[in-house]
Amino acid sequence: MKLVVSVGGSVLAPDLEPGRVAAYGDVLGTLAADHEVAAVVGGGRVAREYIDAARELGGNEIELDQLGIGVTRLNARLLGAAMDGPVKPPEAYDAAAESLRRDGLVVMGGVVPGQTTDAVAAALAEYVEADLLVYATSVPGVFDADPNESPDAERYDRLPAADLVELVAASGSLGSAGSNAPIDLLAAKLVQRSGIRTLVLDGADPERVRRAVRNGEFEGTEVVPDGVGEA
Ligand SMILES: Nc1ncnc2c1ncn2[C@@H]1O[C@H](COP(=O)(O)OP(=O)(O)O)[C@@H](O)[C@H]1O
Ligand SMILES: O=c1ccn([C@@H]2O[C@H](COP(=O)(O)OP(=O)(O)O)[C@@H](O)[C@H]2O)c(=O)[nH]1
């Protein structure tokens, strides 16, 4: 199977803990023995710190995004170093797809301003015609409200892609650089358009990603193509 895993920066590098990066590297490396695996890595706290500092210095939103992209690529290098040795992460989808074809494994970060790595993962999944897209993020799925703001928020076990788009649009995620939402609006639209099976799960423990891929066992939200499932 062809698999794209979006590893949130908040999941991979909330701080620089080599053990956590090694654990992700192990899981992705093991999965790559049986599958073609593309990982897309986010920027996390460090990206936000750079973005906040540069905003105070008067940087415009595109400049802030460019800083964020730089940090996602640093994190991609770090994860790459935990697997095959340091390799410069591809900066575009065609280069990533070529690495995936050649090596069966690729790690990349951001691509262009105006989006997050959620959208990179969805676009790469569409480009390489992935069978499965997994968002390993800091929350255990997509909720009807931000679970970190609303203690009564309820998780969707299955969510039609159109409902995901609506929910993300309503949360106003196409905001400024470094903004929070379960996934960004472009990612939600690409997931809807591609119809690729998509899981959103708590990625704090990479074993959850392994189990989801290996046995289909996971706790979180499955985004289903429009018309296939009920919320
Ligand atoms: N409806 C929602 N369901 C789940 N998470 C949400 C929702 N709305 C906002 N969020 C926020 O989305 C964030 C998930 O993304 P984030 O922490 O940036 O992780 P990552 O590093 O994986 O991108 C959480 O901080 C969570 O509070
Ligand atoms: O293709 C990309 C990927 C990332 N970013 C920037 O880099 C930041 C960090 O990326 P990440 O995917 O971690 O976003 P987050 O989940 O932190 O919002 C984002 O907020 C954007 O500002 C971007 O502009 N384009």
UniProtKB/TrEMBL annotation:
Keywords attached to this entry: ATP-binding, Cytoplasm, Kinase, Nucleotide-binding, Pyrimidine biosynthesis, Transferase
EC number: 2.7.4.22
Tagged with keyword Nucleotide-binding: yes
Molecular function via GO: ATP binding; UMP kinase activity
Cell compartment(s), UniProt: Cytoplasm
Transmembrane annotation, as ranges: none
Database matches in InterPro entries: AceGlu_kinase-like_sf, Asp/Glu/Uridylate_kinase, Uridylate_kinase, Uridylate_kinase_arch/spir
Gene Ontology biological process: 'de novo' CTP biosynthetic process; UDP biosynthetic process
Chief localisation class: cytoplasm
Chain ranges of the Aspartate/glutamate/uridylate kinase domain: 1-201
Pathway field: Pyrimidine metabolism; CTP biosynthesis via de novo pathway; UDP from UMP (UMPK route): step 1/1
Reactions catalysed according to its record: UMP + ATP = UDP + ADP
A Gene Ontology cellular-component term: cytoplasm
PANTHER family the record matches: URIDYLATE KINASE (PTHR42833), URIDYLATE KINASE PUMPKIN, CHLOROPLASTIC (PTHR42833:SF4)
Family according to the record: Belongs to the UMP kinase family.
Name of the molecule in the record: Uridylate kinase
